[in-house]
Amino acid sequence: MHLDLLPTRHGGAAENMAIDFLLLQRYPDAGTPRFRHYGWHRPSFTFGYSQKFAFVQTQLPVGERFDLCRRPTGGGVVDHRDDWTYSLVIPRGHPLEDMRATQSYREVHEALAAALRRQAVEAVTKAVRDDNDGAAAPAGVCFQRAEVFDVIHAVTGAKIAGAAQKRNKRGLLFQGSLWRPAVGKPIDWDRFQEDFVADLGRCLGAEPRPVPWPELAEEEVIGLTEQYTAAEWNEDR
Prior knowledge:
Layout: E1 2-5, E2 9-11, H1 13-25, E3 34-40, E4 44-47, H2 53-58, E5 67-70, E6 78-79, E7 83-91, H3 95-98, H4 101-117, E8 123-125, E9 151-153, E10 159-168, E11 171-179, H5 189-204, E12 207-210, H6 218-229, H7 231-235
Parallel strand pairs: 1-3, 1-12, 2-3, 4-5
Antiparallel strand pairs: 3-7, 4-6, 7-11, 8-9, 9-10, 10-11
Helix pairs in contact: 1-6, 4-5
């Protein structure tokens, strides 16, 4: 089995969310895990599928221009202005896709933490919830509080990475974000990606291989991007 490594691309928030969802739904080689790292055309925030828009508005910066989009996955408000963003699709029937959500979450984050440790970042997955976790931080805001199996800095306790998931009949979509300032030191991001993908490959029992961008139907990408841009998608909860 292979782990397909897609080229890095930049997009607007709605386009990035649409492509992630279509990589779950419409990937030409449906039985192959696939991974992509991507960036943002403009400062961006995304928020979880089930979050209330009124709450999200209270967590956004005032007086700044940015893209905002509801994700197809769960989780909280994510600030993408200084993050390292990725998505991973695990196809239906793969052993990791069959795991409980907490366990698959842990496996992916163990791989991410291991890649950071190769560059002397003291990164670990959070093993247990403390009674005082997030006492001064609102629930539903990604990098202000760490949940169990998020990646944290072992010394400072700062949350480094979190993710959100969507599971359907096609498989499991991870949308993950690493907050660069929480790493605490300069690192080689190209090397980090290489190490992270290699560790994911071992976790999945799949050999990473670079592949060209998949042939997704342009009209479907445009249509879903327009849906994710619309107020009905973003505000109707």
